[in-house]
Amino acid sequence: MKQPCIAIPKKKGEPARKFLMELDILDKSLKIFSEGDELYLPLERELTPEEFNELPEEARQVDHEFESHEKILKLEDILGFTPGYEIVGDIALIEADEPEAQKVADALLKVHKNVQTVLGAVSAVEGEFRTRRFKVLAGEDRTETVHKDHGFKYKVDLERAYFTPRLSTERQRIVSQIGKEDVVLDMFAGVGPYSIPIARKCKRVIAMDKNPDAIHFLAENVKLNSIENIEVIEGDANEIARKFEGVADHVIMNLPHSADAFLDAAIYVTAPKGIIHYYGMTHEDDLYESSIGLIDAAAKKAGRSIEVVECRTVRSYAPHQYNVCIEVRIN
């Protein structure tokens, strides 16, 4: 179907487009296109003679065929509201008890063409290995995927090892602090989202985790990303640390609910002037002070002292609760 439009030389097209926008008669459902040296601007109606006279004299009012813009489907268009969700690889995650969870799952498959599975979490993060239980709400029946982040790939089974894409920016912040001659010890490495990008920047990474499934995927991800300077160790960080006295220029302690139980080991492995990146879950009334006190007490017990480098809130975790990072230099 032909549509009224303005044909105008390309070099005068932008002022004409702005004028038509001001009149609110540019048809935004149709694609502007060019042919030769002319630009064709679709109209919702024909211009009046007075309106047309405001355009450059080279302008012509004609009829022409146009292509429609494909409307980008949004979750709000289907559901009438915006649900909470996150995407890991080609799997979308929602809460299984969310109102209209099945409707949300079906909508996610329609809107996000890269999503092949929608999982509903049926538990909070739980257990010694801090994993979650899920049920498949839509799409393929699986919990395993490959997530891409800043040029790296992470294979993970979401029921067998903890992983969140929400810390991507925080992980890159830590990576930016690492020097090429540094030795880094990742006490709770998981599937490798800290260890693997850090390894590309430093001399050596020692990555450990107590969860055998996490270690399995960490080893796969080391190969998947062609990393050679990571030592992968399965076991309790408190025990493994005894093999690495004073070797680490940076120690990553990303176990925010219970990292304080590993402070003695973290102090033990930290080199003089080395930095501990300590993650905690704290109340808004005491974001940093109590945690700093715990780190200081552990250092004093080992005959060492601390210097606070930076304290920062990483994200909101629950009402009045925050995931924080405290970075201290161990002297």
UniProtKB/TrEMBL annotation:
Q: InterPro entries under this entry?
A: MeTrfase_TRM5/TYW2 (IPR030382), SAM-dependent_MTases_sf (IPR029063), TRM5-TYW2-like_MTfase (IPR056743), TRM5/TYW2-like_N (IPR056744), Trm5a/b_N (IPR040601)
Signal sequence span is: none
Q: Which UniProt keywords apply?
A: Cytoplasm, Methyltransferase, S-adenosyl-L-methionine, Transferase, tRNA processing
Single GO MF annotation: tRNA methyltransferase activity
One cellular component term from this protein's GO annotations in UniProt: cytoplasm
Positions of the SAM-dependent methyltransferase TRM5/TYW2-type domain: 85-331
> Which SUPFAM superfamilies does the UniProt record give?
S-adenosyl-L-methionine-dependent methyltransferases (SSF53335)
A UniProt-annotated Pfam family: Trm5_N
From what superkingdom does this record's organism come? Archaea
Q: Which GO terms describe its biological process?
A: tRNA N1-guanine methylation
Q: What is this protein called?
A: tRNA (Guanine37-N1)-methyltransferase
What organism does the record attribute this protein to?
Methanococcoides methylutens MM1
Q: What is the lineage of its organism?
A: Archaea, Methanobacteriati, Methanobacteriota, Stenosarchaea group, Methanomicrobia
